[in-house]
Fold these 2 entries.
Entry 1:
Amino acid sequence: MNRILARTAIIAAAVWISTLIAADTAILRERVDRLLPSAMEAHSIDLWIVFTREEAADPLAADLGGGKAVARMALLFHLDGERLRKTAIAASYDVTPLEESGIYDRVLSYKREGIKPHLKEFVSQAMPARIAVNTSRDMPIADGLTAGMRAYLVEVLGDDVSERFVSSEPLVASFRGRRLPAEVEVLREAARHTDSFLRDALSSLVILPGVTSEADVGRYLHSRTEALGATVPFVSVVAGPSRGHSDPSDRVIQRGDLVRIDFGITLRGYSTDLQRTAYVLRDGETDAPDEIRRMWRTARTALDRQIAAMKPGVTGTEIDAIARKAMVDAGFEGPPHGTGHAIGFAVHDVGPLLGPDWPERYGTTVFLKMEQGQTFAVEPIVYADYADVGEIHIGLEEDVVITRTGADLLHETQSRLILIE
């Protein structure tokens, strides 16, 4: 997915979390209690400050019960030895949602005096050596601290404290990027439905060559998803030459076309992302042409090798390199983009990006290390010029969860190129 779609997905995820707070805060409390302490310890963070206010809200505030902030609000997580102290400081009319969330040990209210004396006293007493704040060059959701709010933090805490500020990027990848077992099971359920819908969509049940359009396929996927009670964050259907991430058009699917679908659903707040490719047989054909089958085998080999190598401690760039080598060895160039990304609350969530060392495109996110409980979509797409059609590509994407020793598929894999008669 491109950057615009990724940002849209992140915004949509933040909106979902805001809704989730009102419906069920138990999962939010459990995430903070079970995932945050180990993430702070792993990245040597003594204090995490999420500083937010209305109209320029930090997107992570919603994950932490502060999504409804009006005035300045500080969400403070202090790792005091082995104990995580959870404190919120908010305007008097903002404290009720924080108290009802059950996340915080203390919720401090301010009135005329403002947040400054309370925040300054808390940090002075905590005496943190490393303070994580939400500023990030490469991870949008960890970049929620506005320039004005950061300047105010420096004003309140002083230069000697602000010199201890570090980016929360690796902390956010560890905290927000990992899933609890119950969350993995929701993703597993969602991924199985996604895979099933795609298998039906790429069959004679839905596609009649010369009659069915890309848009018809898109409408079918929307209908199946809505019947499940889920939503569609995105769907791309492309028949014929490559068009990247493109909305389904009115183009009618013809014999001899490759049909690629990139599609996900959001079920109970968790989003999947799968790709499947089918070939529409011409009259008299019993299989796809040799070159298309070779492209398919290469994509399948690359993906299998990537998944086999995924485990805690491995970086995104290491996994990406495996796919590129498989493609080059087969005579193809590597794709002009990464080969996988984190999924979870959003279609493009936080975590190691499976991509090459292209600093101006991916920055440092490709060097983040995988952790147990993180979930990924792995997508080594193979591109090639084909006959008189132009550029075509095989889209193959599978969803996995990182376990203690490796990676586990969340759904049934696509073991062969789909053929439509």
Entry 2:
Amino acid sequence: MTDLPKAVLSIIHGRKSVRSFKEGGKAVPKETLDEIIKAAFAAPSAMNLQPWHFIIIDNRSILDALADGLPYAKMLYGASAAIIVCADTKTSELAWELDCSAASQNILLSVEAFGFGAVWTALYPQKELVSFVKKLFHLPENIIPLNVIPIGYPKGEEAPKNKYAAQKVHINKW
């Protein structure tokens, strides 16, 4: 195996959910956030409809307002940035959840590649969480926020979990 596949697999297998960030940490560089978003745009989507939209948040008061209203995203208080992955349901009514999930995975892998920490915090399908974010950001009716991904400098040394389960792998038959 050459170095590139090893590097890619190292990032995939090394990805972990980071829920504790160094508070008061320095900002995630704008150039890094731009590269992370470009990676999200590289995700596959059904019929190449690309229904995604991304809200990048690097403003402390907005991060705190999100944390105030989202019971499962309190780690936003320590995060340096966050990305809200949204879908335009007019663009894709049937597969937007899948498409935006693929984009979210690309975000999480990119964050890992840059040496930052992140975690997927779900909004959809919890109506009260979706409603809170829609109201806070004045989202149009056809825009649905799927998740919020807090990003920052990990507080500790997180270890990835080995999730491989051979009993769930089937070759040529169930």
